[in-house]
Amino acid sequence: MTRWLWLGGAVALAAIVAGxxxxxxxxxxxxxxxxxxxxxxxxxxxxxxxxxxxxxCAGCHTADPARPLAGGRALATPFGTVFATNITPDAETGxxxxxxxxxxxxxxxxxxxxxxNLYPVFPYDHFTHASDDELDALYAWLMTRRAxxxxxxxxxxxGVFGFRPLLAAWxxxxxxxxxxxPDPARSADWNRGRALxxxxxxxxxxxxxxxxxxxxxxxxxxxxxxxxxxxxxxxxARSPAARPWTADRLHVYLRTGLSPAHAAAAGPMGGVTRALxxxxxxxxxxxxxxxxxxxxxxxxxxxxxxxxxxRQAIARQAHPEAAILFAGACAVCHEAGxxxxxxxxxxxxxxxxxxxxNAHDTVRIVMEGLASPAGSIGPTMPAFADLLDDxxxxxxxxxxxxxxxxxxxxxxxxEAVARGRAR
Length: 423
Ligand code: HEC
Ligand code: HEC
Ligand code: HEC
What we know:
Elements: H1 2-24, H2 42-54, H3 57-61, E1 74-77, E2 80-83, H4 100-109, H5 124-127, H6 132-143, E3 156-157, H7 167-174, H8 188-198, H9 204-207, E4 225-227, E5 230-232, H10 247-256, H11 268-276, H12 281-294, H13 299-302, H14 312-318, H15 320-329, H16 331-334, H17 339-342, H18 352-355, H19 360-368, H20 390-404, H21 413-421
Antiparallel strand pairs: 1-2, 2-3, 4-5
Helix pairs in contact: 2-6, 4-6, 8-12, 10-11, 10-12, 14-15, 14-20, 15-20, 19-21, 20-21
The protein binds heme C (3 copies).
Residues 52, 55-57, 59-61, 75, 82, 84-85, 87, 95, 103, 106, 112, 118-119, 121-123, 138, 155, 200 line the site of one heme C.
């Protein structure tokens, strides 16, 4: 009798070990010879091009503009640095040896061709929602890019996070595969927009807060989150925007990075809008329709369009030195009547950076200035990090908040400046 028990126990144990092994071990998918560039139709490649813009693949995978998609760009995470890999069709250092099957597994499950798990800095938790047709198109587009030899550096992660097999457990907990299910009560545009936002366009990867394991907290979708030292503000009913975000306004903003009623896209959002400016217009429109509906209950959407706040006298009294700095360094562009303001740029009071509940974006913009999101002819702002000391930056930031909003002073200005300096 005990012998049978032992045997049963051994069999159960073997099954557990085998199960655990199957769970962390993924087979290598055989290398293929890179497909001939004429093996894909032009319509498929054009669609792939559109999807690559929506997914901003080049934003992460290009470190040097002369070597598009060849990887090497460092991406900071709370656990260390991961480098985007080479996704050109180079056979040795890129994905030239990846079959369509290997590519599909990579995009949907975050597993490389050789079977290793990839870090979710690569937003496969979003790309997993892409359809077969979309993956066909992206594969065709990638495989017909210029092959460039470049080996991306290995990730530099702290302690256990450097151990890739642990990601199998992360996937089990956090990877929600399959298509985004359409809501029949909503318009086709809304559903298309949601599928793109949740899928290839991965908007939540910056705008949704993450838990301690670095996974998005779906119960707080689009509630706003820090990303690489910038604050990606809420895109739902919690939006602190001073003026309502309508579908039309979002459409223009996402295509150009500019809005007559909101601040220009800065930092990482500048890159997103530059990529979207080259995507198909209907798709960007659909994304705008979706987010306008999420923000329909935001405070700004529920009140009359307000005139810009300008509490100059109060702010000058509280921050006299900063008032002088502003008049000298900022007024030429930002004061009502400045030539830039005549060209349709919004007053500072309408920008979300000053309305948000932390000072990070305002401080970053003042320190780093702003590259035009709309290309070389668009509006730009100079960087002030080297012209102002920490105390001047703090005073000026507090002054902006006091003058152009009617909200409470920020408690974290010092921290935001220190963080901006540390970069
Ligand atoms: C937010 C940054 C980011 C974006 C956007 C992004 N990737 Fe990546 N991707 C990465 C990182 C980082 C890695 C490497 C992860 C690792 O080393 O574990 C990666 C890895 C990959 C891999 C695996 C390659 C290999 O050699 O293992 C593929 C395939 C890939 N990305 C395709 C894409 C495509 C296609 C898009 C656009 C639809 C895209 N990526 C957009 C960051 C990104
Ligand atoms: C790489 C990170 C990142 C991604 C991906 C991203 N955003 Fe952003 N977004 C930001 C940051 C940071 C800001 C704030 C910076 C600024 O003030 O311009 C921002 C600002 C915005 C704003 C302005 C909000 C306001 O009230 O002023 C909108 C709208 C927006 N994003 C929409 C989107 C949409 C839609 C997507 C997906 C297509 C997206 N974002 C993807 C980082 C990101
Ligand atoms: C040469 C012109 C120029 C000067 C000088 C300048 N800015 Fe700007 N600034 C811009 C432009 C252009 C934008 C983007 C406009 C838009 O949002 O469309 C901008 C945007 C901003 C924003 C983000 C938009 C918002 O509404 O929150 C802030 C904050 C800001 N500037 C603060 C300052 C401060 C503080 C100074 C002085 C230290 C300054 N700027 C000096 C041109 C300038």
